[in-house]
Amino acid sequence: MLILSLNIGLIAAILGLIRQYQMLQQNSYFGSRFLGWLKSDLTPLPYVIKGVLLALTVWAAVLGEKVLADSMIVFSAVALFFGWKGFAKNSSSIKKLVFTARIKRMLAFSIAVLVGIGVGCVLTNGTIKAVFLALFVLFTLCTELTCLISLYCLKPCEKLIARHYINDAKKKLSSVRGIKVIGITGSYGKTGTKYILSRILSEKYNVLHTPESFNTPMGVVRTIREKLRADHEIFVCEMGAKNIGDIKEICDIVHPDMGLITSVGPQHLDTFKSVDNVFKTKFELFDAVSAKDGTVFANGDNPLIRERADSTINLYGTDEEFATRAENISGSRGGATFDLVFGDERVKITTKLLGRHNVLNIVGAAGLAYRLGVPAKDIAFAVSRLAPTEHRLEMKTSVAGSLLIDDAYNANPEGCLEAVNVLKSFEGMTKVIITPGLVELGEKEYEYNKALGTAAAKVCDKIIFVGRQRSIPLADGVKETDFNTDNMYVAASFKEAMETYSGFADSNTVVLLENDLPDNYLK
Amino acid sequence: MKTTVAFMFGCRSVEHEVSIISAVQAMRSADREKYDIIPIYVTKNGEMYTSNKMLEIEPFRDMKALIADSEPVTMIKSGNDVVLHFLNQKLFKKKDDIVINVVFPVVHGTNCEDGTLQGYLDFLGLPYVGCDVLSSAVGMDKAVFKYVMQAAGLPVLPCICFYAREYAQDRDATIGRAEKEIGYPMIVKPVNLGSSVGISKAADRTALADAIDLAVSFSDKVLIEHAVTSIREINCSVVGDPDSCEASVCEEPFMNDEILSYEDKYLGGNKKSGGSKGMASLARKIPADISEEKSAEIRELAKKVFKALGGSGVVRIDFILDTDSDAVYVNEINTIPGSLSFYLWEATGLPYRELIDRLISLAFRRSRNRENLTFTIDTNILSGVSFGSKGAKGSKM
Fold first, then answer.
1. Looking at residues A216-241, what average pLDDT do you find?
2. What is the per-residue pLDDT for B395?
3. Cα distance between residue B329 and residue B321, in whole Å
4. How many domains is chain A partitioned into structurally?
5. Where are the beta strands (DSSP E) in chain B?
6. A461: domain CATH number?
7. Are residues A279 and A255 part of one domain?
């Protein structure tokens, strides 16, 4: 009977763990984020039941191990119920648990622990047996706990495995003869610039670049291990950072020969604390490239960079002082044209990309590519062929033949203001913005959102904010202007916002969709 | 880590043996520091074999022994890669697939050089050296090639073209048409063969009938053009792609017969010297003994031909120089020339090893250009379609 109960308990735990591992995986294996998710997903009833059961377990244990052993079947049955519910949730999720090697290791570890305790339950007697039984109940009922224990117990092992992957990637990278590594970082603009740079360089070289969001050390390592070929001549490596030292960590793996810093700004301030720390982190790329006597290009139009960059950095931008610069910029709703100057040579550029920040991204990428020997006319051709990345100032048509500027992936203060500027260029049309504002900006969040509200009010004819609580700072910004608040709407969701928009949209309307937040932020 | 280059050669073609010679030359000249070379020999039956012995010419003299000693293989798509897969797997000694980075076709003639092999490689999604499907196919059909050149405003000799069945049903009509529209002396050619196989000259009606009979035995489609009487043949090679290309020095092949026969082209001259050097050892004059201006004119014309065809890699274009009128005509193109015309490039100052580097990088360049066309269009249209109330991301617009 006891063995049957234990077996049911084990099955219950495995089912429950699948759900826990699913959520741990989606929280990138960060225990803290996993706990955060648990908190946000908290519904009291299951925890009350679990609490009561645990109290009963302790009580039964005090009464004697025999009582506890006899009541095990009840505990296991309840655990099976919870386990099954969790398992069903995973099965019905859009993003199910992926059985990666790491998940398999953790699951195997948890099962081994449970089997160990189970064997203990059967083989021992007296108080020790009671303790084993109680532990078994705890671990099968509270799979959250089991999940976290396996996470932390296996951490050292995972570190070793990661080290192995990193060394493997390093070895592979150094075995490609003559390959040049270009690091790209910046608070914003790095992903767009990465695509632009790769496209321009592909005029002359075989280029590998880190795909979409692979800008962490392990993302870079994976790109190298899975995608690098002997015929690659250039590796364009996007480097993301949320903490001091993050860029250095990636540089220590790839040892960049050249660098491109697109911007320094107030991004991820909840982890960086200050813009100064952001600056230091971004310039870890400069330190790494300097160590190899390489060239670094940095956006001179960014005030923070301009102020602090020394003379060894190649600044680019729109100032006449910069050797690599854009002149005679003329933007339109179809894109932009400008003269691109490389010291003594200049070339006319036409691009379909919208916004001034894209002009800067092009100038930075072009400056670096020119330095690597891509002829100016080929740069101009490549740029003329660039299409906007999805959800980054991408022009579409929307309801009633209206225009939609999809900037859903934009989430930085300066980028949002730039997007509002793009909207402004649509003269003679009814201009609308739909936005929930910005998040994760630390203590300055209120300030930045208020500024966005003010900027939007100056340009737009109608404003639709998303999220009642979220939009208060935005609305405060709007109230600073003489904008008629009758034309300001607050929707509970994007769906509702689009319904409001559909009510007045016509073919002479243009709407900017700015920062499309996941639903869990909308309150 | 080295770039894995698969050299494909042989194939179901009358120029099977020549292809082996050209391929072995190329493999021996490629830089082993940069490339892992995999020979893929395609038999006359169309099967693929590989063996390191194929890096030398000697083993090919005993074909049976070589095949018995080689591994049958095939190419298959596996994930994002194309791999060389070994067909004979032993139970305990599994032979691992080899990832191929680029293919170097060194094939001559129909069923391979004519776009067939290129289509196979495109279908697999592998970068490859040389002309693509369309330019290979157009380059192989002498008649279609002429039409394309004509349309591009480039000088070609007028021709008539007919099918073997047409001819068989009414020989007199075809001969009459040739006499009326072209006039003696004429040259009769099968439209789709590389080298000079099946080509002959006719000065009268009997010779013409014989010439046509020979040509139709090689091809279903035959072309007749006027034979220039005071003729010099001048060849010029082009390397590059339509965006940027350059022409080599010109050569003048030495003619034993009235026109260049198969024996002249590949076998002539090199038997005494012992080595199988393919085209390189054919009696020829490099650079051709023509004026600077004529040479410049032909080289310029060669680049125009290459561009009009949309060529890539290395090609050799054969011109006819009418010494009476001093006029130059585009005669035909070899999209994979014998010995890859390396001797012309060495005479131009580009060593064979570097020519191969250049050709491989051109293959990657074309592959990049193709990828660039769809650089950001990676959205699945279906992802925006929703069938229920739970709309996908795109549908809320």
1. 93
2. 41
3. 6
4. 3
5. 3-10, 35-42, 48-50, 71-78, 81-86, 98-100, 102-106, 159-163, 186-190, 200-202, 221-226, 231-241, 244-253, 284-285, 313-322, 327-334
6. 3.90.190.20
7. yes
Picking from B230, B215, B227, the residue whose alpha carbon sits closest to that of residue B184 is B227
In this structure, chain B runs to a length of 397
Q: Is the pLDDT of residue B275 over 50?
A: no
What is the CATH number for A295?
3.40.1190.10
Chain A / chain B CB contacts < 8 angstroms = 49
Q: Check whether residue A128 and residue A187 sit in a common domain.
A: no
Q: Does B273 touch chain A (CB under 8 A)?
A: no
Q: Are residues A407 and A377 part of one domain?
A: no
B308 lies in the same domain as B322: yes
Q: Smallest CA–CA separation between B397 and chain A, in Å?
A: 6
Assess whether A46 and A194 both reside in one domain: no
Assess if residue B274 is contained within a domain. yes
The Cα angle at residue A391 between residues A506 and A440, in degrees rounded to 5: 110
Chain B residue with CA closest to A502: the answer is B397
Q: Of all helices (H) and strands (E), which one includes residue A222?
A: helix A217-227
* Residue A474, min C-alpha distance to chain B (Å): 23
Domain assignment present for A229: yes
- Residue entry with tokens 């064997």: A119
Query: A39 — phi, psi (to 5°)?
Result: -65, -45
Q: Do residue B245 and residue B117 come from a single domain?
A: no
Instruction: Please judge whether B376 and A388 are an interchain contact, meaning their C-beta atoms are less than 8 angstroms apart.
Output: yes
Q: Are A493 and A522 in contact (CB under 8 A)?
A: yes
Backbone dihedral angles phi then psi of residue A62, each to the nearest 5 degrees: -65, -40
Q: Identify all chain A residues contacting B378, using CB atoms and an 8 Å cutoff.
A: 390
Domain that holds residue A438: 394-521
Return the ∠ at Cα A419 (arms to A416 and A423), rounded to 5°: 140
Asked if residue A168 is part of any domain, the answer here is no
Q: What number is the ipTM of this complex?
A: 0.77
The reply to whether B112 falls in a domain is yes
Residue B380 has pLDDT above 50, yes or no: no
What integer pLDDT is reported at residue B69 of this predicted model? 93
Per-residue pLDDT for B93 more than 90?
no
Q: Min CA distance, A159 vs chain B (Å)?
A: 27
The pLDDT tens digits of the residues spanning B304-339 come to 999 999 999 999 999 999 999 999 999 999 999 989
Say if the Cβ atoms of B396 and A494 lie within 8 Å.
yes
| Percentage of residues of chain B with pLDDT beyond 90 | 75
Mark whether A74 and A26 lie in a shared domain.
yes
Alpha helices in A27-175 (DSSP H): 31-40, 44-63, 65-92, 101-123, 126-141, 143-175
CB B99 within 8 A of CB B277: no
Range of the domain at B146: 139-155+230-370
Which residues of chain B does A199 touch, with a Cβ-Cβ cutoff of 8 Å? Answer: 372, 375
Does B4 sit within 8 Å of A230, measured CB to CB?
A: yes
CB A130, CB A64: distance < 8 Å: yes
Domain membership flag for residue B242: yes
On chain B, the residues whose CB falls within 8 A of the CB of A207 are 368
Tell me the per-residue pLDDT of B180-201, one tens digit each, with 9 for 90 and over.
999 999 999 998 865 577 899 9
| B146 and B268 part of one domain | yes
State the smallest CA–CA distance between residue A150 and chain B in angstroms. 33
Number of domains in chain B: 3
Contacts of A230 in chain B (CB under 8 A): 1-4, 101
Average pLDDT, chain A: 90
Nearest by CB to residue B396, choosing from A172, A206, A495, is A495
- Domain closes at, from A384, A403, A428: A384
Q: Measure B127 CA to nearest chain A CA, in Å.
A: 12
Nearest to B368 among A206, A228, A399 (CB): A206
Choose the closest CB to B397 out of A229, A390, A404: A404
User: Which of A157, A184, A206 lies at the terminal end of a domain, its last residue?
Assistant: A157
pLDDT tens for residues A377-424?
Answer: 999 999 999 988 778 888 888 888 888 898 887 778 888 888 898 898
